[in-house]
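WARN no homologs supplied; continuing
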Amino acid sequence: MFSVLKSVIKPAVKSVLYPLYERRLLRQLDFTQTPHHVGVILDGNRRWSKANPSETGDVSSARGHKAGADKIIELLDWCEEAKVQVVTLWLLSNQNLNRSADELTKLFAIIGATVDDLSKKRRWEIRPVGSMELLPAELQEQLSQVSAETKGIQGVKVNVAIGYGGRSEIADAVKNLILEESGHGKSPEEIAALVSVDEIGRHLYTAGQPDPELVIRTSGEQRLGGFLLWQSAHSEFYFCEAYWPDFRRVDFLRALRAYSQRHRRFGV
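OK structure emitted
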């Protein structure tokens, strides 16, 4: 009997208290100090599914990934409200491509449907970033089409990191720099003399965008795992215990509050 009452009362209390807490957080925030670029590591989908079985007992990875995908539009709504200009969402790492064929097939379908839904909203410019050549041809084509169709849309710029790895990005940037300059007839020595932080930055997947001032990771893991290694050199990090499908507006506001309270030293 007590456990039944607890299962009923606790959600009811939360439904009353959380809106009050959100309003309090909003009053504490100065949106003129909002980070221009927020990176989010959407972690914990599979663990969320196992911890929250469906009524039929489904604890599959696909169910977790679908729940995580459904959370993305909410996040983008919150980012718009907070005046964030760029959001980078890490949907799939290049290491994740080693998962079972069955899981990947379902995950690719969920990612494709999610990106398509974002595109149909006509609210955000969608920019795929990552090793696109590692993805199925059909998904590559879909991502390319979405990028072209949403280019120039005014609003939050949304980078969807798919098949992404930070080390691979840096390697690709250096390769592209070498190929570009060798195409201009430069010698290896001349190319080596051109290599600089600025030149490598010009060839990153996120070239032309501000570096992320804030990186959020869900699920309680306190590591980057290779996310935006180059760009996050001076980022502030916020680690949230909630699995990604359970990430709430109040968690996002807490992350913004934590960011606003930090004194950014930029390595000094």
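The mean pLDDT is 92.
OK
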